[in-house]
């Protein structure tokens, strides 16, 4: 991918959205469950923070343009829960 024009950090809002998407996939059994002692939401957050899924985030830029950023290139250490 091209160099990131926006922040190289995953925002808490992006984390919430991605965790929700991954949680829906876990509910639909489209991905394997990691740990049955954790809730689906906790598992989804762990998957996103550990970058275990290949997701591309579309960030809107001024001037009706956008930037696609891979989750694997974003920093997530500041979001550890």
TrEMBL record:
One of its GO terms (cellular component) is DNA-directed RNA polymerase complex. It comes from the Viruses. One of its GO terms (biological process) is DNA-templated transcription. One of its GO terms (molecular function) is DNA binding. Keywords: DNA-directed RNA polymerase, Transcription. Coiled coil: none annotated. This is RNA polymerase Rpb6. It comes from Emiliania huxleyi virus 86 (isolate United Kingdom/English Channel/1999).
